[in-house]
Specification:
This protein folds into 2 domains: about 170 residues, no CATH class; about 130 residues, Heat Shock Protein 90. Helix content is about 60%, strand content about 10%.
Length: about 400
């Protein structure tokens, strides 16, 4: 009989069934047919312990006693290899595991020297099966190991009986905790992936809406305003034809339509204003204002400095939209622009001496117009600036914008 240097292997007590995801925590890397690091270590440990147990048993027993034990050890080895391969391929292997545990129970009771290998057998059983079957077979492993070691102590050492049961119970609780944590981690990862997908979809929708608003503002501040002003000039020319003033109006309408055509082409090509990068900002703003108000003036305060392209673009569109509104609605005799350069901001004020209006009673955007003020405000605020309109009926209007020279 072997000496008492053998320690008990472990197995779980019976417990509640687990879900199908639980067993994947140990062998998730094996889903593609390759053994993961944990499985490889378990299988290598089983092989080393089995060889050591065989050598130990052969050295301590006669050849007559060796035949049955060695036959059981060989059968257990073959069954272990079959179960390991099936488990690596994620195939159903209950019958093979039952056969392995049955052979192993007989072996460990007959030769407790093989009790060490019960550790590897326990983990293989838990990874290959799920639910109640895994608990029952692991419990059989535990009880067989306890019986073999208790027999090794001639039925007098109670520690040999209770030790495997206690260790098996502890390993079962630890294994279940690891599986539950792994399942919870997978659930959280799935939730994060779902949230990321929803966020990406939301961002795409928000980007689409923002792009539609941007294109709407560009068209309003260029094509729509220019066509409306040209239409007014042509109608006035038609009423006064063939007077000289009518010819002047016709010429202005023609020039405005040409400029509007250039703006339309620039919208097709990157939505940038022609000459915006090469022309000084004050000149660009004054030119944009005079398309609609030929008598417009511009004053510059502070020390002119570099202005980011997106800020230049926003200021230009504000001037275009405000000047068009003056020409269409204000009946003003003059328009004065003031461009101010501060340390970290640029300001723009557009004043006209026209009819004025009540900003609080302004009509909401509709098919007939009303997008100008909203578009100007959106342009400025999207760049982190502030926008305001001050007007009183009969006293003119001031449109003011202040933009940071750095991004919002």
């Amino acid at each position: 009989m072997p000496t008492r240097d053998a320690l008990p292997a472990t197995g779980p007590a019976a417990g509640a069934a687990q879900g199908p995801d639980a067993r994947r925590s140990l062998r998730a890397p094996a889903a593609n047919g390759r053994l993961g690091g944990i499985e490889a270590a378990v299988h290598l440990g089983f092989a080393v312990l089995l060889v050591a147990s065989v050598v130990r048993y052969v050295l301590r027993h006669s050849p007559a006693d060796n035949m049955l034990v060695l036959g059981l050890a060989a059968a257990a080895s073959l069954l272990y290899a079959v179960v390991a391969l099936l488990s690596a391929r994620d195939r159903h292997s209950v019958a093979w595991v039952v056969a392995l545990v049955g052979v192993w129970a007989v072996l460990v009771v007959a030769a407790p020297s093989f009790a060490w290998c019960s550790f590897a057998l326990f983990f293989l059983c838990r990874s290959a099966l799920r639910g109640a079957a895994a608990y029952i077979l692991a419990a059989v492993i535990t009880l067989a190991t306890a019986a073999g070691l208790f027999r090794l102590g001639n039925g007098t050492d109670i520690a040999m009986l209770l030790g495997p049961l206690a260790v098996g119970t502890m390993l079962t609780l630890i294994y279940d905790r690891i599986q539950n944590d792994a399942a919870e981690q997978r659930r959280l990862n799935a939730q994060v992936s779902l949230a990321q997908g929803q966020l990406a979809a939301s961002e795409r929708r928000a980007g689409t809406i923002a792009e539609r608003d941007r294109v709407s503002r560009e068209i309003h501040d260029t094509v729509t305003q220019g066509l409306a002003s040209s239409l007014l000039l042509l109608e006035a020319a038609g009423r006064g034809w063939p007077d000289a003033t009518a010819r002047d109006g016709l010429r202005q309408a023609t020039d405005l339509l040409r400029a509007n055509l250039a703006d339309t082409r620039s919208l097709v090509h990157e939505l940038a204003s022609p000459g915006l990068e090469s022309t000084p900002l004050p000149d660009s703003l004054l030119l944009a204002a005079r398309r609609y108000m030929p008598a417009a003036t511009l004053a510059v305060t502070g020390e002119p400095g570099p202005v980011p392209p997106e800020v230049r673009h926003a200021l230009l569109r504000v001037v275009q939209s405000a000047s068009s509104n003056i020409a269409l609605h204000a009946s003003a005799s003059m328009a004065a622009l003031t461009l101010g350069f501060l340390q970290d901001t640029v300001t723009l004020d557009i004043y006209d001496d026209g009819a004025g209006f009540d900003p609080a009673a302004a009509a909401p955007p509709s098919a007939s117009g009303g997008y100008g003020l909203r578009a100007m405000r959106q342009r400025v605020e999207q760049l982190g600036g502030t926008f305001s309109v001050q007007s009183t009926p009969g006293e003119g209007t001031i449109v003011a914008a202040q933009l940071p020279l750095e991004g919002p």
